[in-house]
Design brief:
about 85% helix, mainly alpha
């Protein structure tokens, strides 16, 4: 688990410009919109209710991720695949490749998320088990072109015997990212305390963008589990 997180972090740091450009293609305008709404629209329209502000912001962020997530997720997976093969990965090639796969990825993700959601409603444990079974679906759709039940079946096969390792690695990766985000945010906002400000639009956008880029690490972890599983499958065959 720790080795996967280290390699995932290394992939981000060594290819930070490429992966950041891919993520920011979607999330720079998305972040600007969300921060603007959070600071200047929601407090007035929702009467300063922090819970309602959070819910509204979460809904918009979810809509952005649903609509445009396949573009940057597909591009990142393609870029990582190129890098793992020792090939050059470029922004334009990765984005164009992702655009061709985006509809397949979107449709498969929507149905898969609904299945997991039903599992969570029924009981939390079945939902978690389903999410672990389908953890590698994004890479399967993007790199192998499989969709729907075929992609879910292959993900179930590739995660066999690795699901609790995947869960542990993802928990550790997200905890590490959350701690890093909190440290960065505290350092970034420290100067505002000296000038009597609570918020600053441009600073908030920068911190949010850095946070989004750091969240590539858990994505990289899942890709590495997929990559290793395919290597093992090929060796066995």
């Amino acid at each position: 688990m720790i080795q996967k997180i280290r390699e995932a972090t290394k992939l981000l740091t060594e290819n930070s410009l490429l992966l950041s450009l891919i993520v920011m293609t979607v999330w720079l305008p998305g972040t600007i919109l969300l921060v603007y709404l959070r600071l200047y629209v929601f407090p007035e329209s929702l009467g300063g209710d922090e819970y309602r502000i959070f819910v509204q912001e979460f809904r918009i962020a979810t809509a952005i991720e649903l609509a445009f997530g396949p573009f940057y997720i597909g591009a990142i997976i393609h870029a990582l695949s190129q890098l793992k093969q020792g090939l050059q990965a470029t922004y334009s090639e990765s984005m164009s490749y992702a655009a061709r796969k985006s509809f397949k990825l979107l449709s498969t993700r929507v149905v898969t998320n609904l299945i997991v959601f039903v599992g969570l409603i029924a009981l939390i444990i079945p939902g978690i088990i389903l999410s672990l079974r389908f953890a590698l679906i994004d890479a399967i759709v993007v790199l192998e072109g499989k969709t729907g039940a075929s992609a879910r079946n292959l993900s179930t096969e590739l995660t066999q015997g690795k699901r609790w390792n995947i869960l542990g690695a993802m928990i550790l990766a997200f905890l590490g990212v959350i701690i890093a985000i909190l440290v960065i945010a505290n350092i970034a906002y420290l100067p505002l305390a000296f000038i009597g400000q609570d918020e600053n639009f441009f600073l908030a956008v920068i911190v949010e963008c850095i946070s989004t880029i750091l969240l590539v690490i858990p994505m990289n972890v899942l890709f590495l589990y997929y990559w290793d599983a395919k290597q093992q499958q090929a060796a066995t065959q």
